[in-house]
Design goal:
single chain; alpha/beta; DNA polymerase, domain 1; 2 domains; 10-stranded mixed β-sheet; 4-stranded mixed β-sheet; about 30% helix; binds iron/sulfur cluster
């Protein structure tokens, strides 16, 4: 596997400059990573602004480079902002559109002025002085035996994120993008959760993962038309940048991804989830993974703040005003923890009245994990109980796990890790039996 160095400088600064987590779940922890929760959309700004040792992202569309030149980050702008910026430099809307198409459409996916086609010389000269085309640097690309690709990108501040491309023989190839570096949610079954949160990604850093995936892999895997926000991080903790990135991705002269083919996943941040459902037409996935608060409080500590009944009641209410909209519940089956027949029956009751589909997901083991995957037979039994109870349910096979590219396997926690939580007494025996 690829070795990734943690930027301790950044961690140290982050512990000073970022306020206490809005989720006070971790406030008693002595582990400082848990205090790195960033609720602000401009978290990247806070982090970078206090640094003098690396380039900074000062606003969605401006960057001060190592050489202190102020350049506009093109992929951090919505089309309206983009057009305004082009016209502020004396160029017409038609030229803005041509440039936008070079960045996102027409199979160009320009990474520099040299890649631009059909633009006049003066415009290109201005762009080379005033505009930044890329914010990611490809570090490595790993291919799993099933064809899943994991792409590692280095950010301007040296941190590393991961993006996964999952080919599909029916042409529904999906790119799974990261929204944060690490994650503050500390879900106990997730490798990324071990990292703690380093920082939010900017809109440009999110959008460019999809652009890069198309540029690098379209010729090999065909069209990449689906985007899932299921990579590193809790997307709704970075909701402003996620909504902005989605706005850029759906533009019909650019990447032109249908909102229904973009799925944003959450561990259950209720206020942000409400906002997302009201402001966005994209699909929503909720990572549920348990049918009791006791189990969910342990494996998904966010449940201590927003418990199951609040989460599900919010969805029930909010979806009343959404036409033909189904939420996707994701349920990772963990042997002896959440995979009993009683769990299946409780799950049927819990989702009553919520238009939904349920994805049953195989647990992908990783080093240090206490959990074991549920057997195939038991997964099928669980699926059958849900289907007989009237649920729309799918078994989702694991993809890319031999390259740590599968669900819950992204990232590199390094030496400083978020702690594993105490196992509640009622799960001790079951967990030991499963091991
Ligand atoms: S499952 Fe998602 S929300 Fe939970 S720790 Fe992992 S990345 Fe974060």
């Amino acid at each position: 596997m690829v070795l990734i160095r943690i930027n301790y400088n950044l961690l140290r600064m982050a512990s000073i400059s970022i306020h206490q987590s809005p989720i006070h779940l971790f406030s008693n922890s002595t582990h400082f990573l848990h205090r790195l929760s960033i609720s602000s959309s401009s978290a990247a700004t806070c982090l970078s602004a206090s640094s003098s040792s690396f380039s900074t992202v000062c606003s969605p569309d401006k960057r001060i480079s190592r050489y202190e030149n102020t350049k506009a980050v093109l992929k951090g702008m919505t089309y309206t902002e983009f057009e305004k910026w082009v016209s502020s430099h004396g160029y017409r809307p038609g030229q803005a559109l041509m440039l936008w198409k070079c960045l996102y459409g027409d199979n160009i996916w320009a990474h520099s002025v040299e890649d631009l086609e059909g633009l006049n010389k003066d415009f290109k000269k201005m762009l080379s002085k005033q505009a930044e085309f890329t914010v990611l640097k490809m570090k490595d690309i790993l291919t799993a035996t099933d064809g899943t690709r994991k792409i590692l990108f280095t950010l301007e501040d040296g941190l590393v994120i991961e993006t996964v491309v999952i080919p599909n023989e029916k042409g529904r190839t999906t790119v799974c993008v990261s929204s944060q570096v690490g994650c503050a949610m500390n879900c106990q079954f997730c490798f990324t959760g071990r990292m703690g949160l380093k920082r939010n990604l900017s809109a440009a850093e999110i959008v460019e993962q999809a652009v890069f995936a198309r540029r690098l892999l379209t010729s090999e895997v065909g069209s990449i038309a689906n985007v899932v926000f299921m990579g590193m991080g809790e997307p709704l903790q970075n909701i402003d940048n996620v909504i902005k990135a989605v706005d850029i991705m759906v533009h019909d002269q650019g990447l032109h991804i249908s909102p229904r083919k973009i799925t944003v996943s959450t561990s259950g941040l209720v206020p942000q989830l409400k906002r997302f459902l009201r402001e966005s037409n994209c699909a929503l996935a909720v990572s549920l993974n348990a049918t009791t608060d006791v189990a969910r409080n342990w494996i998904m500590p966010i449940n201590r703040k927003y418990n199951l009944s609040l989460l599900l009641e919010t969805l029930r209410e909010e979806l009343k005003s959404k036409h033909k909209y189904k939420v996707l519940f994701e349920y990772v089956l963990l042997a002896g923890v959440n995979d009993s027949i009683e769990d299946a029956k409780r799950l049927i009751d819990l989702v009553q009245g919520i238009p939904c589909k349920i994805n049953l997901i195989t647990f992908n083991p990783h080093s240090g994990s206490k959990f074991k995957p549920t057997s195939d037979e038991k997964m099928i039994e669980f699926r059958n109980i849900l289907a007989e109870g009237g649920c729309v349910v799918l078994l989702r096979p694991s993809r890319g796990d031999d390259q740590m590219a599968a669900c819950g396997q992204l990232g590199n926690p390094g030496e400083i890790q978020a702690p594993l939580l105490r196992v509640p007494a009622q799960f001790q025996a079951a967990l030991e039996a499963a091991l």
